[in-house]
Amino acid sequence: MSSSSNHDHPLIPLSHLGDLSVTEFLSDYWQKKPVCIRNGVAFQEALIAVDELAGLALEPEVESRLIENKGDVKDWQVIHGPLVEADFNKERDFPWTLLVQGVDCFVPQVHDFLAKFRFVPSWRLDDIMISYATQGAGVGAHFDRYDVFLIQGEGQRQWQIGQACSENSALMAHDQLCLLQNFDVHQEFILNPGDLLYIPPLIAHKGVAMSDACVTYSVGFRSPSYGDVLASFADERSTDISADLRLKDQGFASKSGEISAMDIAALMQFMQAQITPENVAQWFGKHSTEAKYPALDMSEEAMDQAELEAIIKDGYGVLRVSEGVRLAYTWQGDGGLTLFVQGEALPCPPDATVFIEAIANQWVLEVEDIVPLLAHDAAKAMLLILHNQGYLYFADE
Ligand code: SIN
Ligand code: CO
Questions:
Q1: d(CA 310, CA 305)
Q2: Fewer Cβ within 10 Å of end Cβ, the chain: N or C?
Q3: What is the model's pTM?
Q4: Domain layout of the chain by residue ranges
Q5: Which residue's alpha carbon is at the smallest distance from atom 6 of ligand 1?
Q6: DSSP state of 193
């Protein structure tokens, strides 16, 4: 498989996709046009064994689907997870695809693979979905509203890329799948293991497995819709505003049936006053780090300061961000740093900022390197809070 000039450590973001530098990729293709990059991402071996992927689909906390291409497209069958053993043991006469969402939340190697895509800010990463398909299987022509990298893991897949779509694009009558009625093929590629296809939001695409055991890794990104931005910001602000505060009369319009321009102006003034850099940053930090699966139990065995000191003294292993944990930080106007993790805001004491920045940017720190970052008790206290909530953990490597 490709060995582009990427660094050795698995958590260092890629500098190249195949022969293309990430800088060129971002300026020429990202959010602009699709591109197929041969040997786009190097990996030594499959990110997950097929058995393990199927095993995940049996777990109640894992989001999965099995799509069977039975007969006409409108009759394609979708079974939603959790699946049962019988779903896999069944002899199927038709091609089928198993799709497992958020695999990075459960499998460390897959989380590490996602980490390579942090040449885009980490709050933009959504998840890695992994599909397993039999020959001839596909999920049909569709579009996604987010950027996606489709990386061939095993076997071969043909991808066709079509037109730009919108909410007005006609969909087939299917109650579970959003499939396009019209698909104009503009480009076609056959992907082999390691090849990568980037597809910007709203671009139609259709994949068909050309071999059995066709495994595709989809790296998906999140970007809030403007509708969500307004709703979620308003929601966050509303929890901060006392119910005692009410709109004050601004003088009345001469006609009783009229809402006056003064009333509208007063409402606008109140709303505009909510839009401060602090309010927007506070809301967005929480919103953009919300857990994909809030119900997942992250709990890690609690550690006290003495145990932490012993680990640091040993100087062995690494401190890692837990699988599925989202964290990001902002600098406030007063120079303070706020860490956002799983939708929570944690104001960071000044003596802990160097440590917080390091873990939020690198996602892994060698224990021997964290000693200077933890010189102050405030930094150790932050580490203990994050560790004991299960957001960080110590591992051998
Ligand atoms: C697949 O892996 O089969 C589907 C991925 C996608 O089209 O988004
Ligand atoms: Co898609």
A1: 9
A2: C
A3: 0.94
A4: 16-221, 226-242+259-275, 305-395
A5: 218
A6: T
Segment (H or E) for 299:
none
Q: Which of 48, 53, 68, 99 to mutate to test the pocket of ligand 1 (most atoms within 8 A of CB)?
A: 99
Residue 199 Cα: closest atom of ligand 1: 8
Neighbouring C-beta atoms of residue 9, cutoff 10 Å: 11
Phi, psi of 199 (to 5 degrees): -125, 120
**Token reading at 210:** 């050309």
Q: How far is CA 31 from the centre of its chain?
A: 16
In CATH, what number does 16-221 get?
Answer: 2.60.120.650
| Ligand 1 centre distance from Cα of residue 51 (Å) | 19
User: Among candidates 159, 286, 293, which has minimal Cα distance to 218?
Assistant: 159
Query: Under DSSP, is residue 388 helix (H, G, I), strand (E, B) or coil?
Result: helix
Which of 108, 129, 156, 76 has the alpha carbon at shortest distance from 11? 108
Please compute Rg for the chain using Cα positions: 24
Arithmetic mean of pLDDT over the chain: 94
Which residue CA neighbors atom 5 of ligand 1 most closely?
218
List CB-based neighbours of ion ligand 2 within 5 Å.
Answer: 144
Phi and psi at residue 205, to the nearest 5°: -150, 155
* pLDDT digit string, tens, across residues 343-382: 999 999 999 999 999 999 999 999 999 999 999 999 999 9
pLDDT in tens, 46-104: 999 999 999 999 999 999 999 999 989 888 999 999 999 999 988 889 999 999 999 99
In this structure, of 45-49, 298-302, 327-331, the range with the lowest mean pLDDT score is: 298-302
User: How is domain 305-395 classified at the architecture level of CATH?
Assistant: 3-Layer(aba) Sandwich (3.40)
**Sign of the torsion angle spanned by Cα atoms 293, 146, 344, 349:** positive
Provide the β-strand partners of residue 365.
319
In this structure, what is the dihedral angle of CA atoms 142, 147, 153, 157, given to the nearest 10 degrees? Answer: 30
Give 362 Cα–ligand 1 centroid separation in angstroms. 29
For ligand 1, say whether the CB of 131 is within 6 Å of any of its atoms.
yes
